[in-house]
Write a structure and sequence with these properties.
This protein has helices at about 1-35, 60-65, 115-120, 170-180, 285-290, 375-380; strands spanning about 40-45, 45-55, 75, 85-90, 95-100, 105-110, 130-135, 145-150, 150-160, 160-165, 190, 200-205, 210-220, 225-230, 235-240, 245-255, 260-270, 275-285, 300-305, 330-335, 345-350, 350-360, 365-370, 385-390. It is of the alpha+beta class. The protein folds into 6 domains: about 1-30; about 40-90, Roll (Ubiquitin-like (UB roll)); about 95-150, Phosphatidylinositol 3-kinase Catalytic Subunit, Chain A, domain 1 (Ubiquitin-like (UB roll)); about 150-205, Ubiquitin-like (UB roll) (Roll); about 210-280, Resuscitation-promoting factor rpfb fold (Single Sheet), CATH 2.20.230.10; about 285-390, Barwin-like endoglucanases (Beta Barrel), CATH 2.40.40.10. Strands 19-23-20-22-21-24 form a 6-stranded mixed beta barrel. A 4-stranded mixed sheet has the order 2-1-4-3, covered by helices on one side. A hairpin with a 3-residue loop joins strand 21 (about 345-350) and strand 22 (about 350-360). It starts with a helix and ends with a strand.
């Protein structure tokens, strides 16, 4: 029995010894495994994380982390770089972003973190008037949609005043909204709001307004002539003076850019009636006057001119034989003998007493030519209407 206990005791000691050895080896191996790892600073999307690894290369680090790398991803240093203690690795995974430039859509892979970095990466240069949505400092995600609208030059005319402006609008309506232009009810736009815009186009806003205007306007009187056989032919007599009427009119006026383009009468009210002028026109001829009795004392109105003894085509002697050059102060008139017989003594208004002693090819009807001694006097006489009294 004693030997049996001794044998059991030895077996237990060996078991404990073996178990202790195994634990020692495992512990030592674990310690050795951990102490042989290399420390790596891994920065992902700007966030740094310290890891320990047995990987031999940078690519091995990502294999250990179960991260699949894409060719578009940014890894520094390269995936083939040997891992050393305290190595710094930067990893920016590529994002799939939709990029729209001037209406053209495309999908790009990028490691840029902001819109501005994406535009630089895609070599898209902007001027100060171009529009980018979202704004350049916005962060990019895999669901980001970046839109670039190129600005172009336009001529904008508002109310007749022109401007040169930059715009990223696609239609006229968009342009007006972008410029903060408000249209009144009657205003109109050229071209139409749905028109697509392109560089160097012209957009016009015509400002339209309707106003009313109340004015008093004169109504012109007419001149009515009436034949009067009691007046000598060629004479006139005012029977009734004319007077203007007065009417009040209300107008609707349409103005475009401040200038009147349409004027319509809405209503009118008569304030004062017009009074037409009535003129009696003589039809009594000299022959009729004589037939009614002696012509002496009769008056008639005629058109008069003047001539001299040395006028072009003049002989210096009247039709009745008076030598005008020898008698420069004589009072003689040339007449149409069918109206005023030769030898008739007359009184001519503005000329004086004279005798009808001459004729002329141009003296026809109610017209006379008065003799004057000098050409200067004849020019001063000119053409005038005069009254003649038969003596």
């Amino acid at each position: 029995m004693k030997n049996l206990f001794s044998i059991l005791s030895r077996k237990r000691r060996w078991t404990v010894l073996i178990a202790s050895f195994i634990v020692f080896v495992a512990t030592t191996g674990g310690i050795l495994y951990e102490t042989t790892k290399k420390t790596v600073a891994l920065t992902i999307d700007g966030q740094e994380k310290i890891i320990k690894t047995h990987a031999n290369t940078v690519e091995g680090i990502f294999d250990d982390l179960h991260v699949s790398l894409r060719s578009e991803d940014y890894v520094f240093p390269s995936v083939n770089t040997k891992v050393k203690n305290n190595l710094k690795v930067v990893f920016n995974p590529a994002k799939q972003v939709q990029l729209v430039t001037d209406g053209e859509k495309k999908t790009v892979w990028t490691t840029a973190t902001t819109v501005a970095q994406l535009l630089k990466e895609q070599k898209i240069a902007l001027n100060e008037h171009d529009e980018v949505l979202p704004r350049p400092d916005a962060k990019l995600t895999s669901k980001s949609k970046v839109k670039v609208n190129r600005a172009f030059n336009l001529t904008f005319i508002d109310g007749g005043i022109g401007y040169q402006v930059w715009s990223t609008s696609t239609t006229v309506a968009d342009f007006l909204v972008q410029q903060g232009i408000k249209l009144n009810q009657l205003d109109r736009v050229e071209p139409k709001p749905e028109q697509i815009l392109k560089e160097n186009d012209t957009v016009k806003v015509i400002r339209v307004e309707k106003v009313t205007d109340v004015v008093e306007e004169p109504v012109e009187f007419a001149t009515i002539t009436q034949k009067d056989d009691n007046l000598a032919q060629g004479t006139e007599k005012v029977v009734q003076e004319g007077q203007q009427g007065l009417i009040q009119r209300t107008y609707e006026i349409v103005k475009e850019n401040g200038k009147e383009v349409i004027r319509n009468i809405l209503n009118e009210t008569k304030i004062k009636d017009k009074q037409d002028k009535i003129v009696a026109v003589g039809t009594l001829t000299l022959a009729q006057q004589i037939s009614r009795g002696s012509a002496a004392g009769q008056e008639l109105y005629v058109s008069s001119t003047a001539y001299t003894a040395s006028c072009n085509g003049c002989s210096g002697t009247t039709a009745t034989g008076i030598n005008l050059r020898a008698n420069p102060d004589v009072k003689v008139i040339a007449v149409d003998p069918s109206i005023i017989p030769l030898g008739t003594k007359v009184y001519v208004e503005g000329y004086g007493y004279a005798v009808a002693a001459d004729t002329g090819s141009a003296i026809k009807g109610y017209k006379i030519d008065v003799f004057l001694p000098s050409q200067a006097d004849a020019y001063r006489w000119g053409v005038r209407k005069v009254k003649i009294r038969i003596l």
